[in-house]
Amino acid sequence: MHRVAVVATDRTVPFDLASPCAVFESARLASGARAYDVQVCGTAPDLDLGLFRIAVTHGLAELTRADTVVLAGVSDVHAAVSPALVRAVRRAAARGARIASVCSGAFLLAATGLLDGRRATTHWLGARELARRYPSIRVEPEVLWTEDGQFLTSAGAAAALDLCLHMVRRDHGSAVAVDAARRAVMPLARDGGQKQFIAHAPPAADGESLAPLLQWLEESLAKPLTLDAISRRAAMSVRTLSRRFREQTGTTPLQWLLRARVRRAQVLLETTGNSVDRVAVAVGFGSVTTFREHFRRAVATSPQAYRRAFRARTSGRAR
Predict the structure, then answer these.
(1) Residue 34 has pLDDT above 50, yes or no
(2) What is the pLDDT of residues 62-96, one digit of tens each?
(3) Residues 307 and 177 occupy one common structural domain
(4) What total number of domains does the chain contain?
(5) DSSP states along 179-231
(6) Is the N end or the C end of the chain the one with fewer CB atoms within 10 Å?
(7) What is the residue range of 81's domain?
(8) What is d(CA 244, CA 258) in angstroms, rounded to the nearest whole number?
């Protein structure tokens, strides 16, 4: 089973610690079996998180056996980083473990030198300081998360959930990630390139929430939907629809629809034997050529290669 070690230190932000634990611990394979063995590993047995203290039963030695190491964010990015933590993370990386950071955990990861010359992000409030302190890191302050080889970083708060679901999808495919997202009561919708600065409006009491429309779109992916057709369904002008989509989802209606079609295609490629042509039709692309272009742009590989890679992962688990 894939082992995940979530690292806690003094000053760890509780949400940043709990988020990866919740996502990985709740992920289930099609058989119902747990997808991950999750352990919280501390730099000391007793840690001060500010609002409360926690007792940790696993130490940094567990990182030597982990397949994924997650560094939770800290409330004080100016505090010295434990040399023992730096050594443990570097050893895990040298062994080939995947190393991820949540929010200000990027400062812990940066202190190891493993991000030098790589892309990274953190909460936008700390991005300038991260870039100033570690000029060899290519800090991208706007994105939700980054992936550069075996190293991944996320922005603050909810972006940690986005990153963890991305890792679940990479490990076990979209179907398992969609189920994990459902358990977390969140959409598997945002990709790493989306911006941190989006002001997502909460569902309004006056009927302005797009939730019913988004559900209808998910159920209508095979149809040849246009912006005019979507605005008619929503009973609002194209201009108003576009504004509310930007407010509530951070993107445009057609971009949201495109991402939803690609996500559905990933699930079909993983869970059915349907040809690429049939998958393209089932998710509403006008031609298989258009489907391949959009799929490659979104997933960075072809539909055929994606299916082969997923089957290779499932075959490896079966052995």
Answers:
(1) yes
(2) 999 999 999 999 999 999 999 999 999 999 999 99
(3) no
(4) 2
(5) HHHHHTT--S---TTSBTT---PPPPTTTT-SHHHHHHHHHTTTS---HHHHH
(6) C
(7) 2-183
(8) 17
